[in-house]
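Researcher: I need the complex structure. Ligand is S-adenosylmethionine. Inputs:
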Amino acid sequence: MQKSNVAWEEVARDFARMVEIDAHRKFILLPAIYRMLEHSYQDPEGIRGKLIFDAGCGDGGVARYISEKGGQVLAVDFSDNMIDEAKRKTNANSQIKYEKIDLTKPLPYSSGLFDLIICSMVLMDIPYIKRPLRELARILKVGGEIIIAISHPSYTVPFVKISRNLQDKILGKEAKIKFIEYPIFKRVEKKIAGLRATTPYFQRRVSFYLNAISQAGFKICEAKEPLLSKRYKKLLPHLIHATKIPMFLILRAQKLDS
Ligand SMILES: C[S@@+](CC[C@H](N)C(=O)[O-])C[C@H]1O[C@@H](n2cnc3c(N)ncnc32)[C@H](O)[C@@H]1O
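Model: Output:
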């Protein structure tokens, strides 16, 4: 089994291309994250001038969105290639700083430094999430919020095996979905559509995530299981399952005063 960052080094270039065209991201994940960001910052100034930590930034798409809204972003990832891809896509004048950081190690930032943290589509790739979550809580200021997005633990592949045609199964009256039981914390190699290599994926139950987030010192304020809007049904027939089954779980949580 290869190390996680080796896997991400291998897929970095494909990933950076794939995210540009991936309809799940474009039409479901990102709009939901951006709406949550608006909830996090309801004041008229929004995130202008705020210091935001993007934990596991990938190609930096979310970081660039925040930067365009006036936020100052420190975007980190443990893959050199991924950071190179992110820098390549980022305007040199932007307010984004990229650093190579492994989220499973102690973070080299002072406590309470950041106003907001984004951790999008990363936690399910990390073997042990309790310590990383405690570190994220430590570097966030009290009252600051973290937005966490993950592949929906209950509904996303490879754990759901659908034995007949996907659309018939989900939309038909006899829809039956078989859940394959994996031992909790088992690492599987997940093939993300559009990537040639696999990346690690750790199956956990929803309750594990909720408890780990609470135990790290956060209060969960909002949860979203966004669906694909039905108006895209015709445009994106291959995603019709996502109009009924949530592919993502997105949580907004606030750091409590300890
Ligand atoms: C699915 S991508 C998501 C990227 C980005 N957040 C987004 O939403 O587009 C997962 C990213 O997490 C990074 N990652 C995984 N484990 C990590 C760790 N332990 N420390 C830092 N980054 C990590 C990977 O290199 C990859 O760039």
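Model: Summary of the prediction. The first helix runs from residue 4 to 21.
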